[in-house]
What we know:
Elements lengths: L1 E5 L4 H12 L3 E6 L18 E5 L5 H10 L2 E4 L6 H6 L1 H22 L2 E7 L26 H22 L3 E6 L2 E2 L10 H11 L3 E4 L5 E3 L1 E2 H12 L8 E4 L4 E3 H12 L5 E4 L1 H4 L15 H7 L7 H13 L4
Parallel strand pairs: 1-2, 1-4, 2-3, 4-5, 5-6, 6-11, 7-10, 8-13
Antiparallel strand pairs: 9-12
The structure holds uridine-5'-diphosphate (UDP).
The site of uridine-5'-diphosphate has 14 residues, from helix 6 and strand 8.
Amino acid sequence: xxxxxxxxxxxxGSHLAERLLAKGVEVYIIDDLSTGRLDNIEHIRSHPxxxxxxxxxxxxxxxxxxxxxxxxxxxxxxxxxxxxxxxxPVETIERNILGTDVVLRLANRYLRKVLxxxxxxxxxxxxxxxxxxxxxxxxxxxxxxxxxxxSSKAIDEFLALAYFKERKLETIIMRLFNTVGPRQxxxxxxxxxxxxxxxLKGDPLTVYGDGQQVRCFTYVLDVVEAAINLMxxxxxxxxxxxxxNDRGITIESLAQKIIEKTGSSSTIEYVPYAKAYxxxxxxxxxxxxxxxxxxxxxxxxxxxHLDDILEFVIDHFKxxxx
Length: 322
Ligand code: UDP
């Protein structure tokens, strides 16, 4: 079995590559290192079944060769992080839509099964929690760049479902909720690595808004296992699945927990959204997945709880070479 991972040098992609190699799969990755990093894959680069192409997925010549050589495709390459999306909306829209277009067209050319990674941003600011896959989406106006991410990913989903419906291409969509673990950096705004780095330095933890927004955090290895299991489940084809953890925490409580766990003397600083992102920024108040569909499909059960996750990530920042 040969698997292609787009975005394979990224935080989630590198964990997926490692897990597939351990299962005896030959792994090809393509990553332009825009947000992915060679450090993430340093430990697997000399593996005889590992192959790397440093290239953008929009390079069709390179992608044609890779797709033709592999049996399945995990498409993870995308713009990451709300902060990056607000700062670089053109790049976000183009990267997400054009990249997925290339992946699906070539998968269709060689009849390769594809798993498309989507996002809980799809639900927008819907308040109908927990979110079910078929729920309506509630989005803000096009003048607010945050919503470009949700919309670009929705186009990816529409396209993947259309290829399945019209061309019988085997596509699966996995909607990820906040995923965390070692190798995720705070550089693109993600809250847990940011808070842990701030706590370890003794800097104030920057809680945006009133800190009462709720998120559920999933450990990266739970996500990777779900991706591999969905790929090998025939009934998953043509379907959309939430993958995450359904236990929520407010961002303020998260900050307090991190201060406690790191034994830090840091305080909490409340930062208005307009200052953290941009004027008029809209956040999701509560984001919780309904996991019944993925549980029924692959017997999914997140194995790691927030306390374990925080310990792993704190340890990773204290001992980055482990
Ligand atoms: N957040 C925060 N302080 C930070 C970074 C993020 O309070 O330094 C908040 C952010 O506004 C959001 C939540 O933490 O409500 C999760 O943010 P992240 O960027 O990790 O993921 P999102 O849920 O926005 O996709």
